[in-house]
Amino acid sequence: MKKIAWTLFCIPFFLFGCSGEQTVEVNNTVNNETDVGVREVINNSNEVYAGNAIFVDNQLLVAVQAKPWLDYKKKKIEKNLKKQIEEKFPDLEVFVSADYKLFWETQKLLEEEDEKKISDEVEKLKDLAKEET
Amino acid sequence: MDQQQYQQIEDKITPPTPYLKNIIKAFLIGGLICTIGHAITYFYIIFFDFTETTVGNPTAATMVFLAMLLTGFGLYRKLGQVAGAGSAVPVTGFGNAVVSAAIEHKTEGLVLGVGGNIFKLAGSVIVFGVASAFFVALIKLILVSMGVVEW
């Protein structure tokens, strides 16, 4: 009985890994073209399983989540994505991060409507991402 | 009875060490401690202004603090009996080493007792930690200046 209960307890932990579909969300009230373009870039990267993109004025904040086994090359993934997006939209000021904090906060920003608040928050997150200590 | 005979008898009587069982226990409980640590990491990321780069310090501090409380209440000893290396290798083992030494030498006074002995066990961890960090940084500096890797 104890053994069965233990096995049943353990099964969900093995199944968590199976629920994997790429989710990309973009907040964009201005331009449809950039929206699709950014979505495409994130979708094409097969090292990333989720991404949020926030547009404010001519700034773009992209927060992505690297696949579990690729966590160690986050910096490389960030660099690649940044390069790709900048190539596509040279007039945008792009900031890419694979940090969970930025992903969590941008998730909240997607539902935020107040433009001023979003802009402030994006500035704050950029500063936070540069923090080393 | 010479020494060899004695050794033979000793080997016969001593129960075999259950290596596999110990390893599994250490793996599971060490993993559990690390899972708790990861939960604390996410707690700090979500509710405070910490990123994945900066969250390591408060997490380690919290884990050490928890281990100190458990040591003070005498619970970490029981955990150590079951888990062995699983409870000593994570950073909680460091907290345990500091506090248990402090408690042990409390009767000898605050300065020469606690102050002199608090890092008796953990001191080597700090010394080798600092020394190896220095050498790793030196190697990385050489590699960066040679252009093999980036910072």
UniProtKB/TrEMBL annotation, chain B:
The keyword Transmembrane helix applies. Signal peptide: none annotated. Pfam families: SpoVAC_SpoVAEB (PF03862). InterPro entries: Spore_V_AC, SpoVA. Keywords: Membrane, Transmembrane, Transmembrane helix. The chain crosses the membrane at residues 26-47, 59-76, 83-103, 123-149. This is Stage V sporulation protein AC. It comes from Ureibacillus endophyticus. The lineage of its organism: Bacteria, Bacillati, Bacillota, Bacilli, Bacillales.
